[in-house]
Amino acid sequence: MNTPDLKPLANHKNQAPTPDRADTSEQNMDNRELHISSRIPGFYELSIGERLAVVSSVAGLTDSERFHLGQFGSLNGELADVFIENAVGTFSLPLGVATNFVINGRDILVPMAVEESSVLAAASHGAKLARAGGGFKTSTTLPIMTGQVQLFLTSTCDFDTILNARKDELIAFANRGQDSLLARGGGAREIDWHYIPEMHSVVIHIHIDTREAMGANIVNTMCERVSTLMPGILPCEIGLRILTNLTEKRMAKAECLIPASAFDSPDYKGTDVVDRIEKAYLFAYYDVHRATTNNKGIMNGIDPILIATGNDWRAIEAGCHSWAARDGKYRPLATWRKTLHGDLHGSLEVPMAVGVVGGVTKLHPTARASLRLMGNPDASTLAQTIVATGLAQNLSALRALASEGIQRGHMSLHQKNLTLLQQHATSPRNSN
Ligand code: MEV
I want to staple 61 with a disulfide (CB 3.0 to 4.6 A). Which of 66, 70, 115, 255 is the partner? Predict the structure, then answer.
């Protein structure tokens, strides 16, 4: 990826999933959501209670799910004490619902836990623009995680020949004791390796299908297990045994195609806005300072869903930023291009290792209710929703930056915050 391909794109239907991708033509959600609409005009003008009532009814939530979605601090002390060590309390974030999302032809409400004003508004606005072109087309690869087993060679050997001969045995050994994963169709699939000459170190990669789990524990267990065999196979000492968060075999992709007319406004011509969004993308492509802020905006869309669903957002952050720098220079994660017809095509593909069966995801009542709001997606569908939201967030930021700037919208939303801060500062109770 040394220079972006600047040829105008043909107006095309968004790409079909490639063969190594999960079949996502039908999103895998429970069917209570088949008829929901995520288009809820005036949603932001309602009170919190009214919004909760609307989304609960649209998504068909039970009373208990509705209760947990609308809780202010629903994690009790018992769970807090189970989740982490040294717990002394909990820390709450606002939970909102982004509207207007259409993903693979289906409407979906998107829960987002975040402290920053304007993130929900921007996600919903980006989704509304994408909706004008039919919404987002998304797909994922299979859920293949990768673990690393590092070996320090203690004498010279033909490790390629030896490892090739023992590969199947190592994969079988990795899978031993993983009956429930195997029964669910997962398990270690492949092993490969590379050499770090500066350290005389062979690094074995074990590629594992972890199905509906994010899979960190599965991967780390397999790595530690396989490492016990290694001194009998190669002259070596064992180094680290741990998953990589650069999950380049577990990717999620979203695309959208937006007619230029969707960007028309009294002050700006849509065709000009499309030109300026493409230039904004190129600015980020060539300038690392801009790329960093651009990608922060994408993570504004991604992290809040990870948090709302109890997923490990640090893992995804690390993977995405590493992916952004994969050609040796830090680049924008999404691409925005003008098509031959003058419309705007956007695409975002990033490592996206998320699960729907891990401890926090299943135990945290708000995480459970958030998943329920999305129709209890499988891990692949959740990953697709997340990446579509990252793309929507980027679109909304670039549209504003490429026209009136972000401060007008941002400051009006931020105003409530500032007013409260002022009241807080002048309150006698807070004078010390
Ligand atoms: C602010 O949280 C995010 C933006 O700075 C993203 C961007 O500049 O693209 C608006």
Answer: 66
Give the number of the atom of ligand 1 that is nearest the alpha carbon of residue 116. Answer: 2
Dihedral class, residue 60 (left if φ above 0, else alpha if ψ from -120 to 50, else beta): left
Residues 386 and 256 in one domain: yes
Percent of the chain exceeding pLDDT 90 equals: 82
Mean pLDDT of the chain: 91
**CATH value at residue 100:** 3.90.770.10
Range(s) of the domain holding residue 219: 144-243
Global confidence as pTM: 0.91
Distance 330 CA to ligand 1 centre (A): 17
410 counts as catalytic = yes
From the CA of 242, how far away is ligand 1's center (Å)? Answer: 33
Q: What is the pLDDT of residue 73?
A: 75
Examine the residue annotation and report whether 13 is marked as an active-site residue of this protein. Answer: no
**Which residues lie below 8 Å from residue 122, measured CB to CB, with a gap of 6+?**
300, 301, 392, 393, 396, 397, 400
Q: Is 179 a catalytic residue?
A: no
Asked if residue 428 belongs to a domain, the reply is: no
In a domain, 278, yes or no: yes
Residue with CA closest to ligand 1 atom 9: 294
Domains in the chain, number: 3
The list of the chain residues with pLDDT below 50 reads 1-2, 12-19, 23-26, 31-34, 431-432
